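hi!! sorry for the late reply, been swamped w classes. u asked for the two structures so here they r. pasted raw, havent cleaned anything up. first the sequence of the first protein and right below it the tokens
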Amino acid sequence: MKIIDTNEVAGAQVRKVYDHPQGQALLVVLKPGETLRRHTAPVDIFIYVMQGEGVAQIGEEAARVRPDLLLPCAAGVPHALENTGEEMLRALVVKLGSS
């Protein structure tokens, strides 16, 4: 498995931990107050929150998130994630299918 160096994306740290023609897995780490900006993906995704708390926005809906929650998001739907807690927020984003 090849691990890609961390990239800064609108304040978030995003590390690709798995890359395959049929999908990808990315580790997202947000410090308190940081946001993964609103964006879309060309494929279906899901976000699995592993640590911390925050607010996820998928489409026009927003919800508070905490560890062990899984958030599905269809291709083309705008989504964002904000750390509103006092500790790091860590989430695994899995892109399904080829992009």
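now the second protein. again sequence first, tokens right under
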Amino acid sequence: MAADTSAPDPDSGSNGSLHEGPGLPDDFPHAARLEQAGVTSLEHLREVESLEELTGIGPAYANDIERALEELGESEGGGTTSTGETTEKRSSPLSSNGASEDSAEGPATHQSIDIPEGPIKETLSFETYPADRYKHDELGFEADEVLDLLSNMLLQRRFENRCRQMYQRQKISGFLHLYIGQEAVSTGSVNAINLGDDSIITAYRDHGMGLAMGMDPEACMAELFGKATGCSKGKGGSMHFFDAERKMMGGHAIVGAHLPLGAGIAFAEKFKGTDNVCLCFFGDGAMHQGAFREACNLAGIYELPIVFVCENNQYAMGTAVDRAFSKPDLYKHGYNFDFPCSLASGMDVFSVNQAVRDHVETYARQDQPSMLEVRTYRYQGHSITDPAEYRAEGELDQRQSEDAINRLQDYILTHDLATEADIEEIDEEAKQRVKNAIDAANDAPFPDESALYDDVYTQEDYPFIA
């Protein structure tokens, strides 16, 4: 019998079940999801040919359900023998049927104290997305859309180059962390989500991500200049770009502190019953923070629609990844939380796009958190004042030979999507947009002193300010 993936029929029974009979056990994994898909009895569940075709049941959930069926069959004297080597994943608190834990029968924990004979063996697999594997037409990009990708990456590169110049002219104050070299990560990722519905939250190297999401270069430059027309009204600066309309949920200055916020955004989307997801970007250095583990653990417990994306640009400030991690393959760390984990090249916009698409559609939209490591490289120092003397001789030149923008330009020419003259015109347009942004920022006013307490509290009388 083919699986029925439709919503429960209100006329089919008191609980919308397609089959009457013994219901699902109270502790059966993902019972609420099965009921939402119209499966409310073990009889019907055993007839489903493909669990993954059921609405809301992704691969990870299907594996849990199949294991539970095997164990149930064994306890009833039939079915496939279970190895007993894996522990059943408990249901998400958000996936419950509304019953309180106090009213549940049986033990509060289902983890066995009976230790199986070892050694326990596990087979792990991690998907990879190397450069030069994917073609634009395979990803559904038309020729003009490929040129749009290039245009956005060039805009980020020209914007950051002029930011460095403006800092040296003392137009920009405070900290300045440039995104040069990582443009394929932001552009590939943004073009893999539903912009305006899905959320993105990131760390302090946020200019490129904001521009990739369509933020106005004039508002971005004005923010760096501390002007009232900036995207955060001139009070956020380099590390706090924000755009509520596009659901750019901010750059964040404290290393790793935004990861729990990303989990909270995903929690809110699930709580409200939307189909939206959150991409949470962070650097390799943030994985040393306890907030990384806390956010990942909560996402796993609550089965949140989030993708944790590690932008591994090889250096946490001045410390190389392989000097700071005993396990420098960072994507493998997500396995500790039972996440699907993958590794992608951040020097190829198509590879990033395919990787993020897969993690969003296969996992996040099925309420399965996941982790993606994107290996990239920043050409500048950690901040504008860092000379990056920790690099080996010739290292930067070698990395720049793999530049994502050059790679995409070569791809466009090889596949006859545009001419060199077309590419030069796109680049000139990017330069002009950045120049216009600088001119507008110079002319814009600074915030008035009366705006000092704006957007601090929702109350108009500032009750907590003396």
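hope this helps!! also noticed smth abt the second:
The chain is about 35% helix and 5% strand.
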